[in-house]
Amino acid sequence: MHRQPNPRHVWLAIALAIAGMILLFATRTASAAEPLRGQALYESRCTSCHEKSVHGRVKREAKDFNAVRAWVERWNASLALRWDGEEVDDVAAFLNNTYYRYPCPPTICKVVSLR
Ligand code: HEC
């Protein structure tokens, strides 16, 4: 016997595919910074010393988005990574999206409204 696929499942799969594409599109175009790239940069350069804990600790140093970005800038300088401004934005946006959740200047984090 040949089983027909359940039509509801087919529609669900189509809806999910469309939602996925919209999300991808929105993240690509609506955000100035790219948190995903920031995550890759951060994970390749910054996790050797501190684990996620430092950003989630109760007594954290960074008190707003600019402070988070300033920390990234500072580590960028002291590790001589030579990230450009966009890469610093990306890492700051990644850390902010993931841990801090401070209001982010719209020029940097347009994508925040998607949450
Ligand atoms: C040499 C070790 C080391 C490396 C490498 C390092 N960090 Fe840190 N980082 C620390 C330490 C230690 C602290 C805590 C400083 C304090 O408590 O005053 C810290 C704190 C921070 C904070 C502030 C956390 C808070 O309390 O809000 C940020 C943001 C941060 N680091 C980002 C980065 C980024 C981005 C990179 C990669 C470019 C990086 N760090 C690489 C050791 C390091």
UniProtKB/TrEMBL annotation:
GO terms for molecular function: electron transfer activity; heme binding. Gene3D superfamilies: Cytochrome c-like domain. InterPro entries: Cyt_c-like_dom_sf (IPR036909). This is Cytochrome c domain-containing protein. The lineage of its organism: Bacteria, Pseudomonadati, Pseudomonadota, Betaproteobacteria, Nitrosomonadales.
